[in-house]
Amino acid sequence: MTSGTFALILTSVTFSALAQVLFKCGVTSVRTHGWLKDGIGVGTLASILFSPGVIGGLSLYGLGTVLWLGVLARTELSQAYPFVGISFVLTALLGHVLFQENLSLARIIGITMIVAGIAFVARS
């Protein structure tokens, strides 16, 4: 795998993780209290879908997908796809830093295992 392909992979999965952060910002900025209990109304759904966070997240996913197509054109799917795990790592770290989400020992061990798996695939 070339360094250019690796850069595309990292950019694509970073966009995916950042999209999740924007989605979280988008849904927490809209009043969704009672959403699960009472069901979602059209107004609430529209507020969520058209919030800047959700629109920004969808935009980043779109850009990330375009980059991912470039990755798939350059390398084997079975070599590229495990790197998607990096987005899980980034998302957990961003959730902890930005939203004070818990990084328990079990999550840290899981993240370490993901990174180890990616390292094994990268060497293959």
What does this entry look like structurally?
- By secondary structure, the chain is mainly α.
- The protein has one domain.
- It has seven helices and no strands.
- The chain has helices at residues 3-29, 35-38, 42-49, 52-74, 77-80, 85-99, 105-123.
- Helix 1 (3-29) crosses helix 6 (85-99).
- It is flat.
- The mean pLDDT is 88.
What's this, in brief?
By secondary structure, the chain is mostly helical. The protein contains seven helices and no strands.
Q: What are the SSEs and their pairings?
A:
Layout: H1 3-29, H2 35-38, H3 42-49, H4 52-74, H5 77-80, H6 85-99, H7 105-123
Helix pairs in contact: 1-4, 1-6, 6-7
Mean pLDDT: 88
Cα radius of gyration in angstroms = 17 Å
* Estimated share of beta-strand residues: under 5%
Low-confidence stretches: none
* CA-CA gap between termini: 10 Å
Number of strands: 0
The outline comes out as: flat
SSE order:
HHHHHHH
Helix percent reads over 70%
**Sheet with the most strands?**
none
**Count of domain modules:** 1
- How many DSSP helices? 7
Quaternary structure type: single chain
The secondary structure category is: mainly alpha
